[in-house]
Design brief:
Helices cover 13% and strands 38% of the residues. It is mostly beta strands. Helix 2 crosses helix 3.
Length: 316
């Protein structure tokens, strides 16, 4: 096992799009680890007005990526080619560590975005102080909250036939999942659509509520450590995750109802696979033991995830 650093210099970044044609910036072996730096989503307007605490690599990246930026605002680090991954495989992404690396983040009410776009038209960006030593963030009015960092965007390359897509929406290849359960210690499984998988990560969040209702979390820079392993013994059509305590299914769709149905359907499949229960009994167990949560309602494709405790998945 080798550990590969991947910093946030422009040649390691792309912004606002996912595309199978994006060239890999690193080649690794299955089971290797990467230590990846990601920069906050946003534009120059998202930076603190006094410029305090802005990383040099952040300014350089915004300038360098402006000409090739897609329709999304997320700055992605990668892609990473994992040797041996082919379409039909699964990429296991073990999220080993996540650490905030700057002393500010931002959130905001943005035009025509969020859960209530017609009601919030007094647009505003808010900068939030981050205490790296204490692991907290402080709102401008004095409220102190603990940090709970995670990467909003985790993805492999989409199928080449899909062309260039925005980073805004979550899809079968991952992308803007915005799932706060994907903390350090969790594992994400992504179906592979292109040779090498082409993994990337970005959209660092210092914390977020389920729903992400105003469109932005606490957008900030993170450093993450990931182990990337090719799984040839699994077959997936959509991402799912697990922690030491839970299995987590995910559903994405423009309709929140359909996103819910997809998350439930996938949870039933996972329960059947893990326990050997019939599909009917897995469905009933989900009704008694699994919790549906709204991941986000603001990314075009809405997200719902369902969680069940692993201790209840005993074999029939």
């Amino acid at each position: 096992m080798t550990v590969h650093p991947l910093d946030a210099r422009p040649e390691h970044l792309f912004q606002g799009h996912f595309d199978a044609a994006t060239a890999a910036v690193l080649h690794i072996e299955s089971g290797d680890e990467i230590v990846l730096t990601c920069l906050p989503a946003g534009t120059v307007e998202s930076l603190p007005p006094d410029g305090a605490g802005v990383r040099d690599d952040h300014r350089i990246a915004l300038d360098a990526l402006a000409a090739t930026k897609g329709t999304g605002s997320h700055i992605m680090t990668g892609p990473v080619h994992v040797n041996g991954a082919v379409p039909g495989d699964v990429l296991q992404v073990d999220i080993l560590d996540i650490a905030p690396i700057q002393r500010w983040g931002w959130t905001g009410v943005l035009p025509l975005r969020g859960a209530l776009p017609d009601e919030f038209t007094d647009y505003e960006r808010m900068h939030v102080a981050i205490d790296l030593e204490a692991g907290t963030c402080t709102m401008p009015w004095g409220l102190v909250m603990p940090l709970d960092p995670f990467f909003g965007c985790l993805a492999v390359a989409p199928p080449a036939a899909w062309g260039r897509l925005s980073t805004n929406e979550p899809r079968a290849f991952g992308g803007n999942l915005d799932n706060k359960e994907l903390r350090a210690g969790s594992t994400l499984y992504l179906p592979v659509f292109e040779a090498g998988a082409l993994f990337s990560a970005g959209d660092g969040h210092g914390r977020q509520g389920d729903g992400e209702v105003c469109i932005a979390a606490l957008e900030t820079a993170l450093r993450g450590r990931f182990r990337l392993t090719v799984r040839k013994d699994m077959n997936l059509a959509t991402p799912f995750a697990e922690t030491a305590e839970h299995l987590i299914s995910m559903g994405f769709h423009e309709s929140l109802d359909e996103a819910m149905r997809r998350a439930v359907r996938e949870m039933v499949r996972l329960i059947v696979e893990r326990t050997g229960l019939t599909r009917n009994r897995a469905y009933m167990l989900a009704s008694l033991a699994a919790d549906l949560r709204i991941t986000q309602v603001v990314d075009g494709e809405k997200g719902v995830h369902m969680m069940v405790r692993r201790e209840w998945l005993t074999s029939a």
